[in-house]
Amino acid sequence: MTGDPTRAGTRSPRLLALLDYDGTMTTHECNEVALQPFVGDPWWKLEEEACSDRMSHADVFDRQVALIRAPRPEVVRRLLEAPEPMPGLREFITRLLERGGEAAIVSAGIREAIEAFWERLDLPPVRLFASELVGEGPDDGPPYHLEFSDALGGCPRCGPDCCKAAILHRLRRPGDVVLVFGDGPSDLCPAREADLVFARGHLAERCEQEGLDWRPLTDFGLVLDEVDAWLASR
Known about the structure:
Blueprint: E1 6-7, E2 10-11, E3 15-19, H1 30-39, H2 42-51, H3 57-66, H4 72-81, H5 89-98, E4 102-110, H6 111-120, E5 127-135, E6 144-147, E7 153-155, E8 159-163, H7 165-171, E9 177-182, H8 188-193, E10 196-199, H9 201-210, E11 214-216, H10 223-233
Helix pairs in contact: 1-4, 2-3
């Protein structure tokens, strides 16, 4: 069933959906599954720094990647093999675009892995703001670092050029209803400025603590019906 884009004789506002990739559109944390074995216990110690707001998620991920010494083909292969899509993702993207909405992927994750995931699902094109895995050694191998999207902004919490909320500001039009989808510390800044948040994991805990308007993300196929019910109740 396709959600009705009209309500009480008037057209609903345009929906702008900002989606994190890893652990949000995928059933599990793909970077963790694919890359943590290369790093060992230091991966978890750095992760705790992000969850406790002692370091930005972007800085943590960059440091984690810098610890990898595996050749680039092996790193990329593991990143491409790890992801499985969340239920209903294809239906959500298709219905959102059909009703005139916009979707954008905003992630510190690695561009080539996200593009391969999207192509595998044969989903329509959307804007992608992601990171480049840069190898400084022979054959683009280790040591590695990340080059984040230049569309990210700066804030006291995320640090310079690492805040996802800047992309929300860039894409939001007057009258838009902004939906943010995420699971981690880096999604909190855009979640604070969203109209409605669909959250998993750490982000769900933070949304609850801060009293944000949010819903658990369990199945993307249910999202637009939830949004329409929420719009009708406002």
